[in-house]
Amino acid sequence: MKGRFIAIEREYGSGGTAIARAFAERAGICCYGREILEEVSKEQNISVEQIERYEETVTNSFLYSVYMLAQTAAGRGDMLTADGHIYVKEQAVIRQLAANGSAVFLGHCAAEALADYEGVIKVFIRCSDGEAKRRRIVEEYGILEGKADAVRRKFDRKRANYYYANTVKKWDDFKNYDLVLDSGKLVEETCVKVLCALLG
Question: pTM (2 decimals)?
Answer without folding.
Answer: 0.86
